[in-house]
Amino acid sequence: MSVKLTRRDLAKIGFGLGAATVLSRQALAQAPAFFRIGTGGTAGTYYPVGGLIANAVSNPPQLVLTAQASNGSVANVNSIVSGALESGFTQADVAYWAYTGTGLFEGKGKIEDLRLLANLYPESIHLVAAKSANIKSVADLKGKRVSLDEPGSGTLVDARIILAGWGLKESDVKADFLKPNQAAERMRDGGLDAFFFVGGYPTSAITELAATGGGVDLVSLAGPEADAIRKQYSFFASDEIPAGTYKDVAAVKTLAVGAQWVTSAKVPEAVVYEVVKGLWSDKTRAALDAGHAKGKLIRKESALAGAGIPVHPGAERFYKEAGLSKG
């Protein structure tokens, strides 16, 4: 059976299809974008800073950020690659090695989709020692019970570099692989002489240990050994943890790497643009300044400092508009 349609009928159908298309586009535009941030252990610095950023940048229902605890830098990079996370915090050295397929990622292939959202703040290398262990130098770690942090963490990578810089092999120490809060508990119980932690100061695990654990020292990472490490690894910088950062602990010279927020090239440009725009909003600025000591160091002016990997196009667009990008 044939059906004849009048011009009015065709016009109605055309209007209906057009309206459906508009509604479909609006629905897509209004679909929430979920953006997960891999952070670190709950006793470190990544986790609270990630929570502050997620809460401040989220703009539901269009944009929802969540901060998730994780095993740290390397684990976050791997989760971004697998699609388990949209983004994560990582040390600048780990990001560079992942992108170039060198260092820790030697033989595993280049992670060429890794992209920078922002450089955040310097991460200081803490070598925490029990006062009773009488450790005055990295060389004194020989034969001691030392936690190098858990597998998959950037701290473990850097701890091995530090040991090698002072002429020690991992087998020269009685190595353990614990999260910072676990290491602090073990030291408090007398079962550990020292542990490494890389992160922004102050960190809660060390703060609580210094207050209740019978006294701790921070071991200096300075001198010709540190100079040689900085010459070999350009992502390290000289740093100092001020006196009083932890109870009854003097100022100490150390090394630091940049904490960076990274993502995948596969994340849409529009989503990343809104995330980065939100990161540098007045609302987030106020939350960072009030919420954590390291928050004050997260500055738009240094957002591209130490970028060893390409910047995501969505972030690049924001930085160009802000006059910060050379591109």
TrEMBL record:
CDD domains from the UniProt entry: PBP2_TAXI_TRAP
Q: What Pfam families would the database entry show?
A: NMT1_3
Q: What SUPFAM superfamilies does the entry give?
A: Periplasmic binding protein-like II
Q: Which domain of life is it from?
A: Bacteria
Q: Which Gene3D superfamilies match?
A: Periplasmic binding protein-like II
PANTHER family named in the record: SLL1037 PROTEIN (PTHR42941)
- Protein name listed in UniProt: TAXI family TRAP transporter solute-binding subunit
